Amino acid sequence: MLDLSMLSKGFKGDIVTPSDPDYTESIARWASNAVKKAKIVAFVKDAEDVSLALKFARDNKLDIAIKGGGHNSAGASSSEGGIVIDLSRHVNGVKIDAEQKLAYVGGGAVWGDLDKTAIEHGLAGVAGTVNHTGVGGLTLGGGFGWLSGAHGYVVDNVVQVTIVTADGSARTASSTENTDLFWGIRGGGCNFGVVTEFVYKLHPQRRTVYAGVIMFAPSALEKLGPVIEEWWKDPDEKAGMIQIFFRGPDGNLVVIIMLFYNGTETEGKTCFRAFFEIGPVMDATSEMPYEMVNALNNPHVPYGVPTYMKGVRATKPRLEVAQKVFKTLVELTENCPGFSISCAFEYMPLAKVCSVANDATACVRLPYNNVLVTIRWPENTEENLRFARDASRILTDIVLKANVELTDAENTVYGNYDPETAVSNNGGEKSNLMTRENYPRLRALKKKYDPEMLFSKWFAITPA
């Protein structure tokens, strides 16, 4: 029996255990298969609370998980029998310094909080593409979204963090203070501590943008291929596009193109004219308030549904790959009632991202976009999870095998799209694959700040 008095003394937040009425809600996650039964959920209020929780975990040899938005489908923000340091309830504020164009954001905030607050000042920060994801996970893994073409990765727009490291010390990390730690957290995941505050650089942002989806019949796929290839040769930095193959729980198959242009509807439709000339069966695009863009996907990715995600990189658009992926997706889902499965080919302009040197942050820069398979299903069974894992691998292998320009070792993955927590012995190998030439430096940092691997979720880095 744990003696909670050692934690509760001086702890300002909320301590939830299995006997409390809000326990089930406290361990709930976006992907219901990622739920684990923690012994303690510590809703911290500040860095001092985090330090107390870490000390308690060390003293009682408890597994540690950090929860911000709780979106990791592999369960990195959950702990079976351990302690969850949860930032979402109290450490979720957003303050804007409009004059300096900076946002001070709590580690438990979600992107919607920042989008809605910043735009009131005519500003925006680089975010993802779904606004109920947490700022912490997306940022620490690199982070990209609709504004990346103009402003780079999320980590390129972090100017400072407050982080509680494994020894319980609250440190400020920036370009002038604890610079090694500042380098490591920008792409090194949660390996170095609990970030209680991010300070982001903001950019002037027009109040409305052009965005939405156009939908095509599967027969249009052959015409879409050359259009995408041509568009991708010289994409506008204000634009972004995602091609999605989707089969919903109703069994219907569609080809979706999600569009974004940071400008007027007229400018956006000019940028994507060739797509419209093919003849979509539905046009749900319009000029809309900027803060609505990252909410467009929300109805399709609700909380509390079993989910498996797996991503790989594609060196360039290839019609034959898209056709094979689509055909295989159809075959895999013929007898899977209730399943929804999507394969998204993301096209975000990468010139700005790749203008930053690979060793400037822990996050590596490659001129290739991501392909993400997301599978969701009704019943949280091991059999369904096994099917989702196998199906996603079959689909992503098609993409990987087509990357003829790369060796196996060069077929890297993006940390935020990694499907496993990598706590096992091969975790270091996975981290090496993600961070490539930066991995030795990250191992040295891990030895300095967390030699006992207190933080071992997501993609664990082995200390040097």
What are its keywords?
464 residues; Vanillyl-alcohol Oxidase, Chain A, domain 3; five-stranded antiparallel beta sheet; 15 helices; 29% helix; 23% strand; globular
Give a structural overview.
The protein has 464 residues and is of the alpha+beta class. The protein has a domain at 210-417: Vanillyl-alcohol Oxidase, Chain A, domain 3 (3-Layer(aba) Sandwich). The protein is built from 15 helices and 19 strands. Strands 12, 13, 14, 15, 16, 17, 18 and 19 form an 8-stranded antiparallel β-sheet that branches. A hairpin with a 4-residue loop joins β5 and β6 (102-106). α8 (221-233) packs across α11 and α11 runs antiparallel to α13 (382-402). The longest helix is centred in the C-terminal third of the chain and has 21 residues, at 382-402. One of its GO terms (molecular function) is FAD binding. Keywords: FAD, Flavoprotein, Oxidoreductase. InterPro entries: BBE, FAD-bd_PCMH, FAD-bd_PCMH-like_sf, FAD-bd_PCMH_sub1, FAD-bd_PCMH_sub2, FAD-linked_Oxidoreductase, Oxid_FAD_bind_N. Belongs to the oxygen-dependent FAD-linked oxidoreductase family. Pfam families: BBE (PF08031), FAD_binding_4 (PF01565).
User: How many H/I helices?
Assistant: 15
Major pleated sheet? 8 strands, antiparallel
Helix-strand makeup class = alpha+beta
Distance between termini?
A: 35 Å
Just name the CATH architecture of the domain at 210-417: 3-Layer(aba) Sandwich
Helix content: 25-40%
Overall radius of gyration: 22 Å
Overall geometry = globular
What's the CATH topology label of the domain at 210-417?
A: Vanillyl-alcohol Oxidase, Chain A, domain 3
Which CATH first-tier class of the domain at 210-417 would you pick?
Alpha Beta
Give the integer mean of the pLDDT values: 93
**In total, how many beta strands?**
19
Uncertain runs are 422-428
Percentage beta strand: 15-25%
